[in-house]
Amino acid sequence: MTVDWQEARELAYAAGRAAAGGAEPVALPAADGRTLAEPLRALTDLPAFPTSSIDGWAVRGPKPWRPVGRVLAGQVAPPLTEDGTCFEIATGAMVPSGAEALVRIEASTRDGDGRVSGEPRNGFVPEWRRPGEEAHKDEVLLPAGTAIDPAVIGIAATCGYESLNVYPRPRAGLLVFGDELLTGGTPGAGRVRDSLGPQVPGWLRRYGATVDPAAVTGPVQDTLEAHLTAVREALLTCDLVCTTGGTMHGPVDHLHPTLSELDAEYIVNTVAVRPGFPMLLARVPGPGGRPRFLAGLPGNPQSAVIALITLVAPLLAGLQGRPAPQLPAVEVTEAVRGRGGDTHLALARLSHDGRSATPVGHVGSAMLRGLSNAHGFAVVRPGTEAAAGDLVPFLPLPLVTGERP
Length: 405
What we know:
The protein has 405 residues and is an alpha/beta fold. It has helices at 5-18, 150-159, 196-206, 224-237, 255-261, 301-319, 369-372, and strands at residues 3-4, 24-27, 40-41, 51-52, 56-60, 66-71, 85-89, 101-104, 108-110, 116-118, 128-129, 140-142, 163-166, 171-177, 181-182, 192-193, 210-220, 240-244, 265-269, 271-274, 280-284, 292-297, 329-332, 343-350, 356-359, 376-380, 391-396. It contains seven helices and 27 strands.
């Protein structure tokens, strides 16, 4: 039964979320790119003690002040007990109890007896950080489901964490179907070059999966026996197996009979979207009661990528415990036609500020030139058209780390 495009994404996400694995501890340096499986809480007040923001003097009472010591970062400061005294203090050092103000070194002078005079700064920027100014002990800093990046690792280290409890990375594999495919050389004589085997693992990794090179296989011979053997073997080590081609019911399309042999349950079987409608997602019984998944991608390259970002991206988000992907709205600079009762995904390139999108050329379902020049797809909902200047949802392709449109 054909499913609405938005509903298909929601079904894929819910299936992944229900099958997400339990938490596992990972050392901070290895946590980049993972997902918090539980809230990140402050282990202590931040800062844990009053901390100087300047190089200068911690003073008590009226000036001039007599220096009675020095406090450097990493030391425990003794208290200032007498009026008219001060400690020299370094940035990051503990502010001694009894100090009434901090005076910047550049705003101070010393007389012939070595006594210090100066004025504390008046303004909005404090000269020292108070305990708990950034966070209080046990305060939730980040919720479960947060994608971990270097900034998250930094705040975790500041709190005193050695490791973080994260969701497991989904293990993904790829089976390329099609006797007509070449794995090298130029196309000709009725055969075409396989473009999905080299590119799909990269998309999967950008969505958070791990892909062992040994889990990329193909072309798989166009027989039911070969398909069934390849899928069974792949599911032994993968949480998700993607296949390319064979999603229809042609004379050499053996995916549906393979799924039947494996007692698979369809989550989605064809989606009302153009291009890419003959896509599918199935749940396959796995060891220990935890299911495995098979995503059937169409054989046409652009359609296969559309299936990836329609079904596989939300599935992988769910498996990693991340929030369901939300689509930003952009203004299209040109008219984009509708596709009747189907959602139309139109390849488009974003403006530098990311607020508008311009459709690109070479957008046939078998073409990749347009895809290579696009940042994602403008989404035109069923029964609608998009005129120049209209706001539409935008389905982004995952970017290379650090890349911006």
